[in-house]
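Backbone-to-sequence.
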């Protein structure tokens, strides 16, 4: 069986034997192994079993393979051996010989059982040789995600609002431990995937030097704030917006636009500094097209922007005056 880290399930196998003239326990071993593999349990190797028998008459001894009920009842040994192609996993024996079983007879029985086991494993492999790659659609799902313990609070949310929202949306059960272990339980593979995707989007952390396709959430005089993944924003200073001089970010983009950004600094308090200029330089030719190919579907429709001459004339006239007054108001809010 797989280890707990690879497969954190409690497994119960039920074998219903409706009729038997042979070993029902060895039939359960073979059928149980096939059932586990069919269910998608990643067992290390298939297991088969065979019941061996022995009939002794004076000096004459016969070792029997796959004994019938009569041979079990009237014979002198019931010797059951199960295992993989590499070795024995379990042995059970009943003997009626008063003098016991010699080492030579036991060796012969084990050798003969191995031949039978390998034959049975070959027949089983014709039906199913290895565990299925995915769990059976009817099997419950369990997965564990290890997160930074410092992100547990973000996943739970105030009053448990975030985690309750994930449970309500996906129908999964989620348990969170203080060490950052997040256990997700579901009866559906699709629900499990949805819950894992949401959790990963909440707990992921920005990495230095990584490039993200983010969404502009706010534009301010000194740059813009970009959400690189849900709940995590960083600042793109106006000096880091493009390779050319940019006086105001809203001359180039609008709120809701998707832009490429690179993480250039994360200070001890967790504030993130981003650079669109470096992201475009690293991505090379066609990077700006990548931004337009991946627009934010929730963004408002972008309005045509005036050409640079119109913008210059606007700054000299009433439009520029209004913008300056708005800038003063923004500065006042920033100071507050």
């Amino acid at each position: 069986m797989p280890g707990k880290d690879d497969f954190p399930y409690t497994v119960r196998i039920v074998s219903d034997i409706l009729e038997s003239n042979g070993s029902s326990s060895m039939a359960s071993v073979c059928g149980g192994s096939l059932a586990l593999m069919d269910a998608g349990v990643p067992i290390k190797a298939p297991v088969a079993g065979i019941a061996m028998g022995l009939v002794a008459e004076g000096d004459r001894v016969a070792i029997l393979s796959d004994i019938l009920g009569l041979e079990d009842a009237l014979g002198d040994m019931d010797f059951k051996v199960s295992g993989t192609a590499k070795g024995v996993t379990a042995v059970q024996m009943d003997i009626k010989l008063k003098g016991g079983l010699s080492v030579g007879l036991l060796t012969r029985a084990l050798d003969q059982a191995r031949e039978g086991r390998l034959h049975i494993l070959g027949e089983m492999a014709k039906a199913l040789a290895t565990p299925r790659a995915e769990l059976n659609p009817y099997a419950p799902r369990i997965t564990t995600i290890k997160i930074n313990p410092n992100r547990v609070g973000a996943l739970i949310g105030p009053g448990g609002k975030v985690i309750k929202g994930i449970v309500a949306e996906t129908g999964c059960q989620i348990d969170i431990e203080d060490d950052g272990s997040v256990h997700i339980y579901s009866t559906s593979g699709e629900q499990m995937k949805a819950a894992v995707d949401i959790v990963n989007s909440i707990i992921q952390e920005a990495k230095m030097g990584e490039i993200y396709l983010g969404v502009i959430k706010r534009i301010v005089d000194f740059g813009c704030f970009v959400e690189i993944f849900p709940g995590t924003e960083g600042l793109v200073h106006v000096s880091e917006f493009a390779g050319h001089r940019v006086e105001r970010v809203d001359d180039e983009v609008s709120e809701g636009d998707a832009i490429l950004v690179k993480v250039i600094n994360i200070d001890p308090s967790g504030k993130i500094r981003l650079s669109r200029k470096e992201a475009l330089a690293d991505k090379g030719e066609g990077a700006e097209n990548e931004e337009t190919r991946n627009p934010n579907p929730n963004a408002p429709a972008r309005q045509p922007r005036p050409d640079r001459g119109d913008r210059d004339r606007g700054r000299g006239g009433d439009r520029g005056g209004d913008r300056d007054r708005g800038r003063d108001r923004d500065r006042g809010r920033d100071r507050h």
